[in-house]
Amino acid sequence: MLTDGVPLTDHHCHGVVAADLDRPGFEELLGEGPRGSFDSSVGLAVRRWCAPILDLPPHVAPDEYLTRRAELGWREVSARLLRATGTTRWFVDSGYGTDNLAELTGGTVREIVRLEHVAERVIAESGTPATLFDDIDALTTVFDQIEAALRDRARYAVGLKTIVAYRCGLDFPLVDAPPAAVLPSRRLTDKHLLGWLVGVGARIGAELGLPLQVHTGFGDADLRLQRADPLLLTDFLRATAQTGLTVMLLHCWPFHRKAAYLTHAFPHVRMDLGLTIPYVGHRTSAVLAETLELVPFRSLLYSSDGYGLPELHYLGARLWRNGLGKLLDEWIAEDVITGADAEQLITALANGNAERAYQI
Ligand SMILES: [Zn+2]
Questions:
Q1: pTM of this structure
Q2: Which fold would CATH assign to domain 8-18+74-357?
Q3: Fewest beta carbons less than 10 Å away: which of 114, 148, 256, 261?
C-alpha cells in the first residue's frame, strides 16, 4: 500500500536544536532521558532510514553518519530531513522554547500552548512565591492572571497541552476553584493547583474549539510511568464528555491499547502514537495493529513528537508510512479491507482526522 505521497499534518511536535552536535550530544537526544544511544531500535532506524537522506548508504556506522552530519551542518541536515517527512502542517508545542520549523521547512506552523508553561511564567512575573503566600488577594490575582494569559495565548493557537502527568500524575483532582492557600512554586507540582489549571484549559478549549492535548505514557526520566496511564483520566473524560472539548491522548506507549479503549468509550477522545513510533522502530506496524484493534478510525491522528533532532521528525513519518503500509497490505491480502477503503484510511490518519479535530 503506497503511503509515500500522502501529505502529513504533524499535530504534535517541537523545534530542532540549532547547533551542530557531537556524538554524546546527539545520543543524549536520541532517547527519553539521559540514556539515548545508537545501540537501540531508534539507533538502527537512524542508520537505516536517515543515512540515505544525507547521501550515505543505509546502515552506515554511527561515526560516519555523524561525520557527514557535521559536514553538511545542522541547518542543511534539518531542512533535508524535515522536508523529507512530507509534512505540510506542523503544530508545535512551544513549551521548550525552540520553534524553528517554519524557517526550515516552509510548511505551515501553528502553536500549541502549554498550560503549565504559561502558568509558571505568570507566577514568576508576579513576585516571590513567599510574598504571595502571605497575601490571599495577591494569590487570587495571580490565578486570574493565569486564566487571562491562557485566554490571550489561546486566541492565536490551534490547541492546548498539559504535562500534568509529569507533575502530579493523571489522577489529578477535578476542581473548579484554585486552592485557597498554596505556595505556588516556580515549578508547579501541587495536585489541587494543577487540577484547577487543567480544568481552566478544558473550559477554554471547549469554548474556543481548541483540543486539549494530554501527555500520557512514556517520557523523560522525571516521569513516574504508572502515573501516566491514560486510564487514570477516566473521571476527567467523563466530566468533559458533554462540554464540547476534544481530548488528545499523546504518545500512549505502553498504554496504547488502554488509550484505544478510551477513544472507543468516549467519542470526544482522540489519540496518537507520536514519540512511540520513532522509538519502537521496525515494530511500528505491530503497535499500529494493536492500536487499531479498538480505536475508531476517525480517532487516531498522526504525529512525530519530534524534538531536538530532525531525525526524530523524519523517523516519525518514515516508520509510520512503512508500518501502516505493511499492515494494510496484510489486511488487503487477508481480505479484511478493500484497497479503496485502505486509501481512505491512510488519508484520514495522515491529515483528515486532524483537520476535523482542529477545525482547519
Ligand atoms: Zn512533545
A1: 0.95
A2: TIM Barrel (3.20.20)
A3: 148
